[in-house]
Amino acid sequence: MLLLMNILIVDDHPLFRHALIQAVRYSLPQAQIQETAAVNEFYERLDNGPEPDLVLLDLNLPGASGFSALVHVRAQYPSIPIIVVSAHEEVSIIQRAIAHGAMGYIPKSAHPSHIGEAIRQVLEGEIWLPPNLPANMNFDPRAADETALAERIQSLTPQQFRVLMMVAEGLLNKQIAYELDVSEATIKAHVTAIFRKLGVQNRTQAVLAISALNIEEKKM
Predict the structure, then answer these.
(1) Contact 90, 220 (CB under 8 A)
(2) Which of 88, 111, 134, 172 has the fewest CB atoms in 10 Å of its CB?
(3) What does the pLDDT look like over 142-176, one tens digit per residue?
(4) What is the 3-state secondary structure (H, E, C) of 74-119?
C-alpha cells in the first residue's frame, strides 16, 4: 500500500526539492510524487485535486507566516498527514510544529534514509522525530501559548485565510481585491469577519496576532 502512495512536496528551494524527490524515490520507488514551490499553488492543489496521502512541507514558504500554512491545512484537511521538512533544527521549533499538528519533523541535514523511515512511521499513525533529540527536552511554553491562536486561525475559511496572509504582507483592501478578482466590498467583509474571529480590532493587531506563528531565526 505504501508503494502506491501519492506524496506532495512543498518547498520553494529547487535544489533541495530535487534532493528530497530523489530521497523519496530511493526509499519508495513506486510512489507518485508531486511538487510545488508556492504556498498558493499548494492550497489550490488541495482545493481542486485529489488529496495526497502525505505532504512534506517546508516551513519557510513565501506567502506564509511561519507555522500558518501548517495550521491552516491541518484545519481544512485534517486527514492528510504532514511531515515538516525544515532547515531549522531547534528543539523548540520541532515542539511547536508537532503542537500545531505535524506528524513528523525531518531536519534538512538528516540522512536520506530517515525520510523513508519517517514516511512509513507517519502513515502507520505514529509521530516521527529526529533520533538525535535530547532525551529530556524542556517544553517550549510557546507551543501551548499558540494553541488558542491556532484554533482561531483554524476557524477562518480558506478565502479568509488568504486575505489574512495578504493583510500580513501589507496589501490594502483594493490590492487584495485585485489579486483575488473580487470586489473591494467583499474584501472588507472578509476583513471584518477575520477581525471578529481573531478577537482583534484593526489590521495592526491582526498582523501582530499572525506574527506569533513566525519562526525566529537561530541566533548565532
Answers:
(1) no
(2) 134
(3) 555 677 788 888 889 889 998 998 998 889 999 99
(4) HHHCCCCCEEEEECCCCHHHHHHHHHCCCCEEEECCCCCHHHHHHH
Strand partners, 104: 83, 128
CA distance 206 to 214: 13
**Distance of alpha carbon 11 from alpha carbon 19, whole angstroms:** 11
> Residue 36 phi/psi, 5° resolution?
-150, 150
What does the DSSP assignment read for 130-192? -TTS-SSPPPPHHHHHHHHHHHHHHTS-HHHHHHHHHHHTT--HHHHHHHHTS-HHHHHHHHH
**Which position has the grid cell 473580487?**
182
Model pTM above 0.85: no
Place of cell 471584518: 192
DSSP state for residue 128 in the 8-state scheme: B
d(CA 35, CA 17): 8
Return d(Cα 172, Cα 18) in angstroms, integer: 36
